[in-house]
Design brief:
The chain is of the alpha/beta class and 573 residues long. It folds into 2 domains: 240 residues, Rossmann fold; 278 residues, Ribokinase (UDP-N-acetylmuramoyl-L-alanine:D-glutamate ligase), CATH 3.40.1190. 36% of the residues lie in helices and 14% in strands. It has 18 helices and 19 strands. Helix 9 packs across helix 16. The longest helix has 23 residues. It starts with 5 loop residues before the first helix and ends with a helix.
């Protein structure tokens, strides 16, 4: 799925309105219908406890809803959601609206939806610090916040689902005034509420992080800290990068039927990887094939102290669909792999404790993954240099196995420009954030990639000042190496040599455990051996690796799952 800029999203809205049988208010209603369905599915109990239970009467044990609205079209969506919640759920649910701007400052469509609110929806207005209430809900008390934003304390309760509709994708620049007050109000009370759901974006975030967003992560004014974001039609880039994405909570895409032809015409170098993407990439399996038809992956991993990494990496490769997997391990540690994976072939290194020599006949392999648990002994550094040189020569001569570099292999090639320059074109590099930092520092120091001119470039810890600078540097390195770079983490980013960045939509925080990346490296190697291009092997590997993590979390929970669980949950289909 494409990730469009805020400007392209606005153009898609306008094009849909101008070229389809739908007016702007009707498009807003369509969005509100989709949002309401998602909110009810997320928040409403499957069944009520009934008479005599915790609520004492059918229908009263569910949440109450508070829509905090701004003045633009995002607020219009929120006000329409308030009306639809009241219509769908009836008088058994309290639905309230807290307006952070006077009516005369609202956009026309926002004002129209305000006027359509039924009497059963309570309205609270900032005008002159007064509370305006219609219908069944009357809340006493409260105080006036700065800039006359009315704050009724009793609206924020343990049963409250806060729906953030203050600011949407049109936001840019510094937060101030009533919008800032509304964001501060939500964040200061969210801990005692049932849920905080943002519409499209958490208020305060720009569509793209480069839009001058200067939030202070220690301040409640930064952006709404949502537990869930229902983003409309497309994911936004700021929802997928660490600095800004941490405000989004769980991310769900809500489709409202924008013109598909216009969307197809928009060029974007950013996209998400989801089930639809994966279906379009999967290769059929030849029913007349044999083990030699589906590729041969080699795993070079493990040392005496970290042989488990070789076991995990081999396990990932064996679940990829490739025909054969060979694990090259220290001779003294071969039993660990043989006993764990009888399906794998074992190649023994001359050293009993480390990788010290390139295996014979590497040309017979379709792919080679090297690095997990390898260590950085001098013999290993020399052997890796020999492997890289041979593969580079083979590539220049016409064909070579696809190389996947992970873990210690990445640390070794980051040690100097000579090693980094040996990486064969068409490789796949799979760094976590620390390994990426070392790679980029080495590439910058050698002049392989240009430095950024921004005066605020880099920090003591990383060679970038923010996420967008990191993305720019990763693109530069992928282009310089003519290779695919997989930046592991939440929404793992896979960058092609052409500069296209793909953000993964599977996986969970429970996968942040030692050894998880070893499984991924083996899986990508197996997929490359199976016949996928380096980019497609990386995209599919990251997706199925995340999906295995989701399955493992479903059985063991995010806290208790471990990397050794992942291979058993891999299912490439």
């Amino acid at each position: 799925m494409k990730i469009l800029t805020g400007n392209d999203i606005r153009r898609a809205d306008l094009y849909t309105i101008e070229h389809g049988p739908v007016e702007s208010l009707a498009l807003m209603e369509r969005a509100a219908e989709a949002l309401t369905r998602e909110i009810i599915a997320r928040c409403e109990p499957d069944e009520c406890c009934g008479p005599g239970g915790c609520c004492g009467a059918v229908g009263n044990c569910g949440p109450e809803y508070l829509i905090v609205a701004g003045k633009g079209n995002n607020a219009g969506d929120g006000l329409a959601v308030a009306r639809l919640l009241h219509e769908r759920l009836g008088s058994s649910r309290k639905v309230s609206v807290l307006l952070s701007f006077p009516e005369d400052e609202m956009s026309p469509d926002c004002r129209s939806n305000l006027e359509r609110l039924p009497a059963g929806v309570a309205k609270f207005s900032p005008a002159a610090g007064r509370m305006v209430s219609d219908g069944i809900m009357h809340v006493g008390g409260g105080s006036v916040c700065p800039d006359a934003l009315f704050f009724p304390e009793s609206l924020f309760t343990p049963e409250t689902v806060v729906i953030d509709a203050v600011l949407g994708s049109g936001m840019c620049g510094e937060l101030r005034g009533r919008a800032a007050d509304a964001i501060r109000l939500i964040n200061s009370n969210s801990s005692r509420c049932r849920d905080v759901i943002s519409i499209d974006l958490p208020s305060g975030l720009p569509t793209e992080p480069s839009d001058g967003w200067k939030g202070d992560p220690d301040s409640s004014l930064c952006a709404v800290a949502a537990s869930c974001t229902l983003t409309i039609e497309f994911p936004k880039l700021s929802l997928l990068l660490p600095e800004t994405g941490r405000y989004a909570g769980r991310l769900e895409v809500v489709h409202i039927g924008l013109d598909r032809g216009f969307i197809a015409s928009c060029r974007s170098c950013y996209a998400t990887v989801d089930r639809e993407t994966v279906r379009s990439l999967l290769l059929p399996r030849n029913e007349y094939g044999h083990k030699g038809s589906f590729g041969h992956a080699m795993i070079i991993a493990g040392c005496k102290e970290m042989i488990g990494a070789a076991v995990l990496c081999t396990g990932g490769a064996l679940r990829s669909g490739c025909g054969l997997v060979t694990a090259h391990v220290p001779s003294g540690e071969r039993l660990a792999v043989q006993l764990s994976h009888p399906s794998a072939i074992v190649s023994c290194d001359p050293s009993s404790a480390m990788f010290s020599a390139v295996p014979d006949s590497i040309s017979k392999y379709s792919s080679i993954a090297v690095g997990p648990g390898l260590g950085r002994a001098p013999e290993t550094v020399r052997a890796l240099g020999d492997l890289l040189s041979r593969l580079r020569d083979m590539r220049e001569a016409g064909a070579a196995p696809t190389l996947i570099l992970d873990a210690d292999a990445l640390n070794i090639i980051s040690s100097g420009p000579q090693m980094l320059g040996l990486v064969p074109p068409g490789s796949v590099l799979t760094p976590h954030i620390g390994e990426l930092s070392r790679l980029l520092r080495a590439a910058l120091a050698s002049g392989m990639i240009p430095s950024l001119t921004d005066a605020d470039t880099g920090t003591d810890r990383y060679p970038w000042a923010d996420d967008m600078q990191k993305v720019v540097l990763v693109k530069s390195l992928a282009a310089a190496l003519k290779s695919v770079i997989v930046v592991k983490g939440a929404h793992t980013m896979t960058c092609s040599p052409q500069g296209d960045c793909h953000f993964n939509m599977s996986g969970n925080p429970g996968m942040a455990k030692g050894g998880s990346g070893d499984v991924l490296a083996g899986l990508i190697a197996g997929l490359a051996a199976r016949g996928y291009s380096p980019l497609h092997a990386a995209l599919l590997g990251v997706w199925f690796h995340g999906l295995a993590g989701d399955r493992a979390a479903g059985i063991h929970g995010q806290e208790s799952m471990c990397s050794a669980d992942l291979p058993a949950f891999l299912k490439v289909d």
